[in-house]
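queue> holo job accepted (flavin-adenine dinucleotide)
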Amino acid sequence: MVKHIIPDTLSEALKYLYQGDFQVFAGGTDLMVQNRSWSETSIEFTKNMLYCFNLQELKGITAIDGRIEIGAMTPLETIMNHPDVPSLLSEAIGEMASPAIRHIATLAGNIGNASPAGDSLPVLILYDAWVELRNMAGFRMILLKDLIIGPRKTVMHPEEMIVKIVIPKHRFDFERFVKVGGRKADAISKVSFAGAVDIEDGKIADLRLTFGAVGKTVVRNETVEGAWIGMTISELKNGIWRLIDMYDPLILPIDDQRSNKHYRKTVAINLLRDFVDQL
Amino acid sequence: MQKDISISVNKIDNYEKISGCAKYVNDVQIEGALYAKTFRSPIISGEIVSITVPKLPDGYFAVDYRDVPGKNGVKIIKDDMPIFAEKILRYFGEPILLIVGPQKSVVQSLINKIILETKLIEPIYDESNIAINYHYEKGNPQNAFSSANRIFEYTYQTGYQEQAYIEPQGMIGYSEGDKITLIGSIQCPYYVKNAVLLALGCSSEQVRIIQPAVGGAFGGKEEFPSLMGCQLAVAINKIHKPIRLIYEREEDIEVTTKRHPAIIRMKAAVDSDNSLVAISSDIRLDGGAYLGLSNVVLSRAMIATTGAYTIPNVDCSGIVYLTNTVPNGAFRGFGAPQIFYAVEMFLNHIAKDLGIDPLDFKMKHLAKQGDLTSTSGTFRDPILMNDLIKRALEISDYRRKSQKYKLENQLRGMGISLFFHGCGFTGSGEATIIKAQVKLHKDEQDNVDILIAAVDMGQGVRTTMSKIVAHTLGIPMDKVRFPYPDTDFVPDSGPTVASRTTMIVGGLVAKAAQKMHDRWQNGVADTVIEQYVQPDYIVWDEATFHGDAYPAYSWGVNIVDVSVDKVTNQVTLEEAWSVYDLGKAIDDLVIKGQAEGGITQGFAYGYLENMEVKNGKVRQKNMTDYIIPTALDTTKITTELIDNPHAGGPYGAKGAGELTLIGGAPAVAMAIENAIFRRVHNIPVTPESIMELIEYGNR
Ligand SMILES: Cc1cc2nc3c(=O)[nH]c(=O)nc-3n(C[C@H](O)[C@H](O)[C@H](O)COP(=O)(O)OP(=O)(O)OC[C@H]3O[C@@H](n4cnc5c(N)ncnc54)[C@H](O)[C@@H]3O)c2cc1C
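queue> job finished
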């Protein structure tokens, strides 16, 4: 029989996690679906469950010293509506699931689930978001892009949990998020894209590009981005084919029941080109 | 002066549905009811070598074909589908046995422990196993083709469509002595009853079917519940305890009937003044593993092979082939959505090849009153298509917008479809198979009960029938009651299908009400029974497809404005307009509900809803992967009606339920075609296929 624990405090939660065989349950919108069973029977969890939705310490959003800290148990809806939250993130959340799901689902859950199609991920990775992990002994900060290493795979230890998502505060001169789902709402992404640019004295000071659902994890490549720093927008526009060539080998989508490789790849490239066109 | 019957009233089930107090089958509580779950074929095609059921704890049962006292075949048309598989397994998920018992978790674990040994048989997915082969002709197509000025030939393909009713299939039943009662989410109480009678081999008084509130059906609860009803009745007959059999969504999507995928080859002969002189079509439906209703679906498609047009020479063939896939069956439109899609696209393509305006070309061939139908029957009633089209063009500004979009070349396009739906059963089905009967009963307080087997699955039948009776009797709506159908109390007024309910059943109800009205005495109980009599002008030869296929036709025009995103190739419906002739609306809002729901489902069939069966298995088997439109995917829809009362229907009403779906797919596919300047042949036109068309398609 699996155990079901509802801790009241973070330290209590961490004590259970220390045992090594508990799984954190936040909003449960992934877990309940993944472990679904015949209706009216108990859900088929295979691990002990640690229900963390009562941990007040992990709820809320604070803006300090040039960064935004989002508590792991803060519902997506609260995040989406918060004035300090970067606009692209609010936009991405606005395209996730449906109001009912956003009411209980969390950003930490979207990260913990580590789906290649997780919609907050391209945006968080674009912002260079960090994740604060805690265990009984202490905490560590890790860049989100280093946390997720494959579909449903992270480098989190079983006795660790996400307590915060930390986003450096920054306003880009131009930014954009596009989600391509099977319909206009409540759909899993076939492809997603986020892009942002800063321009100083007519030159590109920062360029960030991320792609979702076209590989095992979000595609971002700082070397490619860096190659354009110091150039002008028109140089970028003129170099669009070179830019596309640089991403071509990095974008490796699959065929599945929602779409196919060819579509995903072509749209990802189209989104990149369109982003540059719009600059 | 009585007020116009079309003026809308509050739908009588609004309160129970909105408040949540409506009782659906899964809300029905019966003391001590056991749970049943189906053990299904884990293979696609093969033979059972052995089944080992684990030792069953006390109170748990396994029910299989050996428990069927009557025929192990579900009464549909040919009874070819077994209630429980005996030896041969023909599709993934085919039912083999039920495990029944008091605790779901135990039932589930027993199912998990069943060991099935099988011998695989190479599955068939192609057309090699032909079950039905029909053919008919009108005029002299051979001559017409041999002397034609030009001949055109194109092939069209349509995909699966899942009904996606909000309430999955389910049934609960119990026994009292040797009588079995089933309460189910169904469209056709008497279909279930007759199927159970055959399965149990018992007499009519021993089976009772009750319909609770039904959460949508769209044809999906026409023949499929007969299978569940037989299984449940067999189980109750064995165990003598109440049992419930309710499907989960994924189980429902994987194993219940869907719209038949079709391949339709069309060939036309055109003479020197650009007139269509002959059409030849070949319609191929994938029936899935068992025939079910497929041959009737095929007939309806074949009869409509000339679309809304009069074409003097016709050569039409059709087949149903069986494959090792989930059986396909009834779905709103019943063959018509496939054929109208093909015909509308075909005429559009011929016109483009001829370099003439597709709408002008179509209008030149529109069927008119007095014309011969494709099956050499007669269109007896006035056909108002010209008025419908004129109005639709006006409210949509179709001509100007089409021209403008064409010149702008901004991936924006208009599409238009012209179509009809034959109301009621095909041919003499009403008289020879259904023989509908309705009953009205008035008590001493002058309350009138409508006793019919018509099912309100959300489409508004309880409201419209009550309105017909209240109107005819001149009594308030609250003096009329429409209890949920119960075969112990209502006569067999036929299934709730084929756009027959308002016209045929409602017509009988109106007649009965008129009789009651004419002999009305306050405070005196009265009962009136009315029986269907086929109009004598209907002559239909089923073998040769000759004569009047339907007593009446409803007509429609759909127009849609779409844009295609140049970056993602996603389609946005910008606006839609429809004008219908469905005789007379019994209630304007009920019709608006049918019209908006129908066209939304029809559009989605054309561009959004995508289902593939790969290696015998449904790939999109839940509501995450099977995409149906949300409110955000719909658009502003304007619907207008032009009255054209039909003498055989109550207050002139004809059919409306299916009509409103049929034109959606061709309109949206054509709009996409015009937006991307590429010929569309297959639906759904998903963004993936739009991308392919833009890359490789023909202009
Ligand atoms: C109808 C529906 C629509 C959806 N639509 C979308 C969509 O459009 N886009 C999208 O990206 N997702 C979508 N989802 C998926 C889901 O809602 C999101 O991934 C959501 O963010 C998960 O959050 P949660 O709090 O519910 O996670 P949970 O289900 O509670 O957890 C998910 C995973 O994260 C782990 N986890 C959670 N919190 C922590 C923590 N603090 N520390 C460590 N691990 C943790 C859990 O152990 C689990 O493995 C949808 C889901 C549903 C049911």
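queue> Chain B touches chain A at residues 37, 104-105, 108, 246, 248, 566-570, 572, 608, 612, 619-620, 624-625, 627, 629-633, 687-688, 691-692 (CB under 8 Å).
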